[in-house]
Design brief:
Length: 261
Amino acid sequence: MNKPICLFDSGIGGLTVLKKLLEKFPDEDYIYLADLARVPFGDKTKEEINSIVNEIVKWLVKFDPKTIIMACNTSSALVLTEYQNKLNVPIYGMIESCAKEIANSKYKRISVWATNLVANSAAYKKAVQKTNNSLEVEEIACPKLVPMIEDLNYDNDEKENIIREYLEKTSKDSEALILGCTHYPIIQDKLSELTKVHLIDPAVSLINEFSRGVVRNASGGAKPQISLYTTAQADKMRRFANLYLCGDFKVNLISLNTVAV
């Protein structure tokens, strides 16, 4: 295996980032960790998030990665800078690259759907207005979305009702809606049926930045290795991975949870 690109999230949401990476950089090796034992991250404290991320990063560094991606907006909002400062491995988050592109766009008002922690921290607003303080940003906490997406038992009507609930909270004059949690692109098709507002997946901006900063593997014909790990619910993880990544994947179950939250 070449030096892998390592990603992590609280659950299956980061698969949306992995999918885009595979499409853009098919010759890379990837390691993805879902901490399904402690999903969701968005309802935890900053201290709990920091402890969890510390465990995850220590585990990922053992693979000698070329880079680590926090495929999670919550950890990106709360602890990314700390880990960028203390790791010798390049580490990327989900917010800054998107915020820079939005700040330099034509938009005058945007909305962000996010977890409680991200919305309450005003992470996107602060990042956008650092460059363009005239751009209005509203951040809407959507605590029902991650459990809905992670739970395979919700029917279409239940999903639509929850999505409509948050659309009603979203300003009608917003020109774009940032999907500020990596789980949310999984419902992007359904969301597109219910609103005409422009939907923005921050993973696109992340990959644009990533492509400028990371030395990629040469295309040598060898099949890349994709290794998937989870801290719980391996069968669920496998079903989501096979469906969303269109393959037949093995999912490895590991234990990290010395931090029980």
